[in-house]
Write a structure and sequence with these properties.
Length: 445
């Protein structure tokens, strides 16, 4: 991370922006944790997830470690709890048995840490020190908390009991967004050197040449996925990789997570409420193996990560890579389904203002999209500010997901943002779109 010293006027604007982002993020954390009683806060709703109260204190502990202690150089608030909230030392399945801070004490801890951070923010100089330049450390903490907010939202989806979260439905379709889009051969810039809050695995910017390919104009919908189920897709090993077929059999997969038969159709449980599966919404809660099997059944494949990013960022008129499909401006409610504004994916065609110049829709928000790429660093990758954010996850165990979901905040989502998870995971808000190689007749001018 590099950055120039921030002039005084710019520094004050940056302070205001950081304070607003910290406040906005903490309000979301409060909404997710205040929505349930203390019994629900300390309960583990799935062995895949932490108790909500662990996430609550963990975001405060990370804020203390990086901002109060490292940036501020101040005395610890609670050094005694560092190990309890170290995600690498404490596997999720074991966290309920730890002597965690009770809800009231956890909330008090967060308030104390935040008071110290706001005091620090009034005094800090945004110098050339990489951790502080352009407010990076503060942006990293905002993104970290928002990522845990999405994790807590996924925990809410897994919890039993009556609905406690409420949001209006997403907008109805405003444009046709079906079919496929041809992406011509050529180079594009992948990654970034200029986004001040981009994380280490998004860096550095580098040129990538891709042959021409075809990508779906929208994520795969429930309707198309139901066709795969009806055609016996879950029962035919032809469509599955060996690892995928083994997992399908061991896990007993027969439909997306949270689906059940409903007469002649299907219903989907969304945060405590059952509703009929709507055919024009992107399918969600499918693992990588399911996405890969559908793509094979459809005569296609999953896009590589580079193919996804070129479709999302490349502007054919200028040859440059944009920050988002629609340009460089931050997302609004007109561009994408982000930030828990709604509690499920929007129908295909709901966000025409968010389409890319080539006409690819809903690349940002709605559902995280599985790619065929395993998680690695970009060429020239340098870990910053610590190896445990990205580098320790590099290898063949994790598949890359791109684009964010309806539960991803705008602060933690952009055209270069990279997510990763095990290929068997589907409690996350994951979907996909397909791609394919270009046929000879399609490549003719």
């Amino acid at each position: 991370m590099t950055g120039a010293s921030t002039p005084r006027a710019g520094a004050e604007q940056l302070r205001s922006r950081i304070a607003a982002e910290l406040e906005r993020t903490r309000a979301r954390t409060a909404l997710l944790t205040d929505a349930v009683d203390e019994t629900d806060l300390v309960r583990q709703h799935s062995p895949l997830m932490s108790p909500l109260v662990w996430d609550l204190a963990h975001v405060g502990n990370q804020e203390e470690l990086w901002l109060v202690r490292d940036v501020g150089g101040r005395e610890p608030v609670r050094r005694d709890i560092d190990d309890l909230y170290d995600a690498f030392k404490q596997p999720r399945r074991d966290r309920p048995s730890l002597p965690l801070l009770p809800p009231r004490e956890a909330r008090a801890y967060l308030r104390t840490v935040r008071d110290k951070v706001l005091d620090l923010l009034d005094r800090v100089a945004f110098t050339d020190r990489p951790l502080v330049a352009d407010g990076f450390a503060f942006g990293m903490i905002v993104q970290h908390e928002q990522q845990h907010d999405e994790t807590m939202l996924a925990t809410h989806q897994l919890r039993a009991g009556p609905a406690v979260l409420h949001a209006p439905p997403p907008p109805e379709p405003r444009a046709r967004a079906g079919g496929e889009v041809l992406v011509p051969a050529g180079e594009f810039t992948m990654g970034t050197d200029t986004d001040p809050w981009a994380l280490d695995n998004e860096r550095p910017a580098h040129r990538v040449h891709l042959p021409a390919y075809v990508i779906d104009a929208a994520p795969v919908t429930n309707g198309r996925y139901r066709e795969f189920i009806a055609d016996g897709g879950y029962d035919d090993p032809r469509w599955w990789s060996p690892a995928g077929w083994r997992h399908r059999r061991e896990a007993g997969l027969s439909a997306p997570m949270h689906w059940r038969r409903d007469g002649d159709g299907w219903a989907y449980r969304r945060f405590g409420r059952w509703a009929p599966v709507r055919d024009d919404e992107p399918v969600v809660h499918v693992c990588y193996h399911e996405a890969q099997a559908f793509a094979a059944w459809a005569g296609k494949r999953l896009p590589t990560e580079a193919e996804w990013e070129k479709a999302a960022r490349w502007d054919p008129a200028t040859g440059r890579s944009r920050r988002y499909p629609w340009g460089d401006d931050d997302p609004t409610a007109e561009h994408a389904n982000l930030g828990q504004r709604h509690l499920w994916p929007a129908p295909v065609g709901a966000y025409p203002a968010g389409a890319s110049p080539l006409g690819v829709h809903q690349l940002i928000g709605d559902v995280w999209e599985w790619t065929s790429t395993t998680f690695r660093g970009h060429p020239g990758f340098t870990a910053f500010p610590y190896r445990e954010y990205s580098e320790v996850f590099f290898g063949d165990d994790y598949q890359v997901l791109r684009g964010g979901s309806f539960g991803t905040d705008r602060a933690a989502c952009r055209g270069t943002f990279r997510n990763w998870d095990y290929p068997i995971r589907r409690q996350i808000f994951s979907g996909f779109r397909c791609a394919r190689d270009v046929r000879p007749e399609e490549a003719q001018p």
